[in-house]
Amino acid sequence: MKSKAFKRITLSLLGAVLTGMLAGCGGLDVTSTLSPQMSGEVQGNRADLLKTVLDTETIVFAMEGQWAPWTYHDDDDKLVGYDKELGDAIAQKLGVKAEYVEGEWDTLFSGLDEGRYDAIINGITITPERMERYSFSTPYAYDYTALAVKSSNNTISDFEDLKGIRAAASFGSVYSDIVASYGAEIIYVDTIAESIKNVVLDKSDAVVNSLSSLNDYMMQYPDTPIKVVAVTDEPTEIAICLRKEAQSESLIEAINKAISELSEDGTLRGLSRKYFGTDHSLSRKMIQTD
Predict the structure, then answer these.
(1) Which one, out of 6, 63, 202, 260, has a CA that is 20 to 30 A from the CA of 112?
(2) Which residues form the domain of 100?
């Protein structure tokens, strides 16, 4: 049986094909040549993403599924994490079901551009560059960028020390931008586990990633010989990413309302303490768990 998400993509493609075919025949108004029922389906898929989500009773989120504690698989290979539970909670507020598409970090945004899902929920940092291309929900969490090195390394103690060394970071991430800005050689990795392994094996001199993920890794694997030596002064804002188009506005408003309610009822605070050991729904220093 085809999922509702698949049906939605099919309808969207049908609408796009019909629009292209008819527009190529003299620039006709596509909706004026369709039956009332088909016209409504095409306009619904093109003009209002929230309507589509409600009609199909499904919201499709994309995530890595390998970036703990935001999104990852547990020992039973079940998809879990802060963002997984948040996505489920938002879907429940909307009265729909959440479906998840997993992919490597550098493919998530291209998939969003192509309309393969409605939004990305993956601990995404809001940056000015991303805001030029995408729309974001209100922040639902805050984090810090951290620099970690091998425990025996006493020569790297600050971001300024990155110049001329090798630092591991995900391709296309805000962390790779930071590494580049300080003049380090970027060693591209797919997962935080891979980046830490590179440092331990001396394939990289340092790793730049989120403080929450580095803390989580060190709690899960306390014998790993790495240490956090520097943390950014200002927090980063974490939000859900959607396509920057009028069709997304209604869905963003609905998601923002859900986030507000989940903040007020303590859900965000509870999820933060469950997955991070501290409250990431607040904008404050989170170097140590509490």
Answers:
(1) 260
(2) 57-142+238-275
